[in-house]
Every structure is written in C-alpha cells, then in structure tokens.
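Recap from last week: sequence in, structure out.
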Amino acid sequence: DALRLIRDQAREEWQRHSPVPRDQAKAVGRRFSRALATLQELIDHRAKEIAHAKRALVDAAHELLNSSLAAETRAEKSKELQRRWRALGRAPRGEEQALWREFRRLCDQIFALRDAQRDDHAQQARGRLEAMQKLIDRLDAWQPARLADQAELDSAIKQSDALYPLPPGRRTEGMRRRWDGIIRARRERLAQLGMREEIERWLEHRSLFDAHLAADAACQEQGICEDVTYDPASSLSEELRNAHEQRNAARRNPPPAEEVSERLTYLRAYLSLLALGRLRQQDESLQLAIQVERLNSGVGRELSRSEEIRRVLCKLLATGPVSAEQWAREKEAFDTLFDQLTQLSPT
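Predicted structure tokens:
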C-alpha cells in the first residue's frame, strides 16, 4: 500500500507540473514512464507475495475451523489470523476480494461455533442451577430419622458436587449459603441420632451393667466374687464383650477404690461434654485430660460423637469394681445424661 501511495502521489505531482518545455517533454516523459513501470513492477511483485501469504492464511483458517481445539481457543486463534491479514496489505484487486470473502466466511463460521458453544454452556449452566435449586428444596424438606440415613445425605452431597461449577451471581451465592446451612443442620441431626442410637443400645444391655454392679457389691460386702455371664446369642457387640470380660477381671484383681471413683467421675464428665458441649464447673479440671484422650483416640481421623460415646460406655462397663456407695453418687448424673442424649433438638 505504501508503494501504491508513492505511485499515486507521483502521478498527481506529474499532472500538477505539466506541461513541461517542448524540447524536454519526450525525454522527461520517457524517464517518468520508466520509473512508474519499475514502481508498478514492485507493486505487482509485492501484491503477488501478499496474495500468497493471504492464501496461506485462508488455508490456516480452514484448518483451524476443522481442528479439534476448543471453540474459544479457535476463536482466539482466528483473531490472530485476522490481525496478520490486516498487517499484510492488498493482493491484486480481483484476487484480494475473492480471498477476503473466503477468509471472512471461514472466520465467521469459527465465531459462530464459539457463540453456539457459549449459548450451550449458558443453557447447561442454567440447567445446573435449576437442578441445584431442586436438590436444595428436596433436602430442606427432608429430615434423617436414623444414623443410616447418612447414606442419603452423602448421595445428595455427591449430586451437588456434580453440578458445580454453577454460574456466578447473587442467586448462586444465596443458594450456596442456604445449602451449606442445610448440610450443617442435617449433619448435626445425624450426629444426635448416632448418639441416641448408641445410648439406646446401651440401655438394651443395661441389665448386664446392673448385674456387674450387683456382683461387685456381693464381692465387696459378702466376699462372694463371681463372674457375671451373658447370653452368647445376645446382640452384645465385640467391644462390649471385651469390656464385660475386663469388668470380671477387675473384680478378681481390684484396683484401689479411689482410682475407680476418679475413673467414674472422668467418664461422667466426658459424657457430659458430649451431651451438653460443656463441663460442669466442678469438672473443669478434667477438660485437658479429656482433650488429650480425644486427640489420641482420633489419631488419623476425627472420631464421630457416636463413636466417642461408644468408647465411653465401654469404659464405663469395664470400670470396676464399683461399690454401692460409689454408684449412688454418680447414678443420677449418668441417668440424666443418658436421658439428655436420647432427646433430639427441635428441627
């Protein structure tokens, strides 16, 4: 284009300075014509080079259209081809128009594919948003009734994860906050259900615990130290069976009474922390010991509250021998905690 500008300006200047003296007209005219012819040859040569380069850009656009690249990536690369096209200048007039039509057609197709994909992504995002709203409404209307319902909550969380990412915006942010609140509430209720189920299982075997209390009293008061037995066909867990055997062994080789009392107080305080989330003022000195045990028991993962209650109850069964006086001091507090742990918070 710069060469064409020079040529056109030279012609304008020639016209402006005409006519020239007759005796110089032919010689000067020939020199000017030769200069213009040489310049035109340069223009034509450069135009052919540009045409070759633009044909290469057309081929590149065609290859880009048929490539397996993402639509957004193809559109960005197409913009780069357009920048290169604009920097080249013009090919010979007829060829320039034909090349431009083909190049523009290919670029338009690339951008159309990008726009179609954007529309498709937007539609998919709206679909995910609506699916998430339905999932939130369903989980908001659902309340777990037993610990085994954890599987349904896990399934809902997995469905939620599959819907992400959601389109950004205030609606999405509001849905996320609502979802997080529902999940926290359902997890808390499942934790309460798990604790209640552990206490209910314990109460099913309360007669075994009472039998150990009676055997402890008989051993201490009458000197008759016998093992307590249980029905092997019962649903007693392996953990409770082990605790039962430890209690019988403790009756045969009893630890100091003071140690037993301290152990009962510690277990009652631990159970209070699980039931109420706090310790009674007189038990606050035990908080550090309880925290250390919780950390040591949960090495590798955090124990659930139902797992902690199960451990406390097994240790309660294993602790002994317990005198009638010792149990009288703690019985009411334990029974109150058992009752509290079977009560669910309002939904």
